[in-house]
Structure formats: structure tokens, C-alpha cells
Amino acid sequence: MDSKHTRLPSFEAHASRLASTHLRQLLADEARGDRLRRRVGPILLDLSRQKLDTAALDAVGEYIESTHWQAARDAMFSGEHINTSEDRAVLHTALRSGASRHPVAPADVRKEVEATLQRMEKIVGAVHRGEGETVGLIPQVTDVVNIGIGGSDLGPRLAVHALEQFHVKGIRSHFLTNVDGHAAYNLMNQLDPRHTLVILVSKTFTTQETLLNGGVFRDWILRAHDGDERAASKHFLAVSSNVEAAEKWGVPAAQVLPMWDFVGGRYSLWSAVGAAIAFSVGMDNFRQMLAGAAEVDDHFRSAPWQENGPVLLAIAELWNRNVLKRTSRAVVPYVDSLVDLPSYLQQLEMESLGKHVHPDGGIVEDSTVPVVWGSIGTNAQHAYFQALHQGTDIVPLEFIGIVKPAHPLVKNHAALLSNLLAQAAALALGKTFDEALAEAKSGTDEQRRALAEQRTFEGDRPSTVLMLDSLTPYSLGALIALYEHKVFLLGHLWRINAFDQWGVELGKAIASQILPSLDANPDALTQFDSATRALIKAIQSRK
Ligand code: F6P
């Protein structure tokens, strides 16, 4: 990243030409469609419903080429300290480099990564065989509870839920995240402490939510062992880059798996942070997920920009955000088991790219990350799609579908897919006033026209379709890596550091000041603002 605060080009001529070009016209150009539909391993990426013609596409692509993005990409893959505010390398790609055709991560890193995968393999295999005691754990595990938050939760949660058809029989997975006691309490009520294995996942091992919930589970398991700490410790694994703190907390050294400073939390599901995934689907499937990601890594490093999936996704985002000024993007998977994808992407994209300062302290003058949100289709169609079709704001959408489902209910899947295709088409094509008027059969002319106005869809609303052949560990790995590299490239183009997250610190600091004050006399809490004092008072009065 250089320190020049060059703004993005405005692409004005292209933007004004396209302002009067409806997506209906753009879609009539089949050669353009072919350029915007690309295969990336098991994923078909269809950007043909983005408001770009080939001239605009080339202009943005050529601009991206001029930024030397390949050098920035290679710096990341080879372990340069591109996370400058923390002086760290960014090497999540090293975690899957064992499956890469051209691994370039430093050899010592690769060695350490593989050694950790082998430790995971040993532990997971022993638990699956009902021989946990051979690795220092309880012999029979029925339930695995992942306690972690943010990157220590969202990735494992996404993959475990997405890969439900690959679940190993006899092991149930649970995710405890929030500090809201209802979650821990309800979970403990469902589980048998004697057969529960807890994975405490925290890169820093200082996160309030995780340590508090870990303590709640430790007390619960201790009670089941009449206070025998040694017996209770066999129920715990920890994953952290702060191995010392994990051991101090009470997890024996042999049960602490490492994580490294060169992997950001939101990029960490490929490491031992993904232990819950491995327990849930087995180590072979976990390695398949790494292999899917490695295929996209190789693709990102070798495909020319015109065919490069992450580059094309970044072009669409840049166009929507910086040229068309769209403020949000909706992610709508037409796959129930991808229910966690929108929240996963919220962290990946918004924590990475939610910045307005360059690494050298200068203010970013271009808009950065849009709000990322969404939920499962078709359910979403019956909730907020009205606003997406006819609301005043235009929200670019991302549809995710799968060709082959993991069930034999052919009619269900056909209905699901046809809805996905129909929504993308309806948003792009719309319905003209004349078409709506022709449908309005009764009433006066004035009434028919008023109704037709309300039933007109202007269309011209952009979307992308990502179609996976099927949802497997391999294709899931590929999908996530595709997004990761899009994020990397946008960070490069916006000239921000996509790998730190200083913005989450202030709230944490204030919460730690408020916590001991919740029972204090609010009038004496002069360190807080008047609104905080009033709320503490109100809470106290209703206890
Ligand atoms: O507060 C944000 C954050 O630091 C995320 O970046 C991270 O994924 C999450 O908290 C959890 O952190 P840890 O793994 O250190 O508990």
C-alpha cells in the first residue's frame, strides 16, 4: 500500500452513459454476458446483472491493473508485514497452502501449520473413535461446545451449519457466543456435562464474553466431577495465540492448539480455530475445505483480471459503492444451511473494510465498505424484497444457490432455484408502466393508471449470482476464499488496512468501566455522560 492519497477515478463518462442504459439493454448483449460469467473452480460467478457494459468493465479493470495489485497480493502471500498498524504478516493463505499447487508462504510457517493440522487430526480422530482418553480428554464425547466470538465463532459456525450432510454421527455441535446468560443457561440445561467437550477459542484469550462463558462451563463441569479439577480439565481444549494465558486459565498444555499473530480472527477458520468443524465433519472433510480455498488462492494468483473471480467481484463492489454510491449490499443464500453466511460476511467485510483512515493517517476520501446484510431466500422474499423491488434506495444483491442439493426432494429444489432465478430477473428487468396498465382490467381510466403506477417495477436493479455445483467442504472453502480475496483487493484499492480492527476497542474499554458501576449510586458516576447515568438509574429502579 502506498501513502499517496490518490482518489479513485470517477469513471464519469461510463457512469453517465450507463445511467441511461437499462439492464434490459445490457442483458441483450450476449458477448458481454459471457465476459461477466466466469467459473472459479466449483463456483459459477455471474455478474451479468451488474450495471456495467464492457467498456466500463475494461476501464475499471485497467485502472485496477495500474495499481500494481499483483505486487500487493504477492506481498501478502509471501508473508510481508502488510498489516502495518500491528506490524504483522497476513498469512491465512498459508493455512491452506498444503493443498496449493504453488505454495509461497514461508517454509517455517507451512511447517508449523502442518504440524498443528496433524495434532488436530490426532485429537479429532481419537474423539471420533471414542478414545478421547488417549489424547488427555474424556473418552466419550457426545456434544462439542465451541465458546468464542467474532472470528472465533462465525467461521466455525458457518461451516458446521453449512456442512450438515457431512456431520459425523454421534457428535452434536453447539456454539456459545454471547455473554447473554440465557444462551449458556439454556445450553447447559440441554447437555450432559459428563460427555461435553468444550473448545475455548480466543486468539487473544482476553475476550470478556469467551472467558466469562468458559468460566460458567468450567463451574458446571466441575460440579459434575465434585470439584475434581483434573477430571474437569479433560473436558477442555483451547485454541489461542496466547498459549500461556490458556494454560494459566486451566487448560493443560497438550490440549492447547496454537493460532498465530499472522492470522486475523476473521480469517482464521482454516486454522485450529476450525476445530469445531473438524469434530463435526471429520478431518478429511476439513482438509477438503482447505483444498477448495487453495484452488481459489491459486486462481487469484494466476488468472488475468478479466477471468479473476475476486477481481470481478471487487469491480462490481467498487462500481456499486464508489460510482453508483450504493450504501449497502444484501447477501441472500437460497440454501438454508448457509444461514450464517450473511453474518460471517458482515465481519469479514465490515470489520476488514470499515475504515476511513489510510495507514499513514490520512483521511480516505472515497466511500469504503457498504453495509452488508441479508438472510435466507425464499424467506427473505416474503419479508423485505418489496423494498428491494420498489423502495427508493437501490440495494445490490448477491444470490447464492446450489445446483445439486443433498436431498431427493426434486420439486422443492426446482421451486427454490426458480425463485432465485426469478428474483434476479425481476430486479433487473422490472415491469413497465404499459405492461402494468395492460394488466389493470377494471375501474376508470384514472383508477387503472393509478394502480398501474403502483404495479410498475422500474427494474435496473443489480445483482450477482454465485452458483455452486453442490455444497461440499471443497466448494464452501472455495466460496469463502473468493470473498476473502475480494476483501483484500478492495482494501488495496481503497488504500486501507483490511487486517486490523481498532474500531472495536473503545466500546470494550467503556464496558469495562461501566461493569463495576452498575450497582453504584448513579449520581456519583460523574465519569459517565448524562444518558449513561440515567440508564443505569433506570435499570437499578426496575431490578
Ligand atoms: O472485538 C473484535 C474481535 O477482536 C474480532 O476481531 C475477533 O474475531 C473477536 O474479537 C474475538 O477475539 P478473540 O479471538 O481474541 O477472542
TrEMBL record:
Gene that this sequence comes from: pgi
EC number(s) on file: 5.3.1.9
Record-level GO cellular component terms: cytosol
Main location: cytoplasm
Listed PROSITE patterns: P_GLUCOSE_ISOMERASE_1 (PS00765), P_GLUCOSE_ISOMERASE_2 (PS00174), P_GLUCOSE_ISOMERASE_3 (PS51463)
Record: active site: E351, H382, K508
Pfam family name, one: PGI
InterPro entries: G6P_Isomerase, G6P_Isomerase_C, Phosphoglucose_isomerase_CS, SIS_dom_sf, SIS_PGI_1, SIS_PGI_2
Family: Belongs to the GPI family.
Gene Ontology molecular function: carbohydrate derivative binding; glucose-6-phosphate isomerase activity; monosaccharide binding
Keywords: Cytoplasm, Gluconeogenesis, Glycolysis, Isomerase
NCBIfam families linked: PRK00179.1
Biological process according to GO: gluconeogenesis; glucose 6-phosphate metabolic process; glycolytic process
Pathway assigned to this chain's UniProt record: Carbohydrate biosynthesis; gluconeogenesis; Carbohydrate degradation; glycolysis; D-glyceraldehyde 3-phosphate and glycerone phosphate from D-glucose: step 2/4
Localisation: Cytoplasm
Reactions catalysed: alpha-D-glucose 6-phosphate = beta-D-fructose 6-phosphate
Protein name as catalogued: Glucose-6-phosphate isomerase
Record function comment: Catalyzes the reversible isomerization of glucose-6-phosphate to fructose-6-phosphate.
Organism name: Luteibacter rhizovicinus
Keyword Acetylation: no
Record carries keyword Ubl conjugation: no
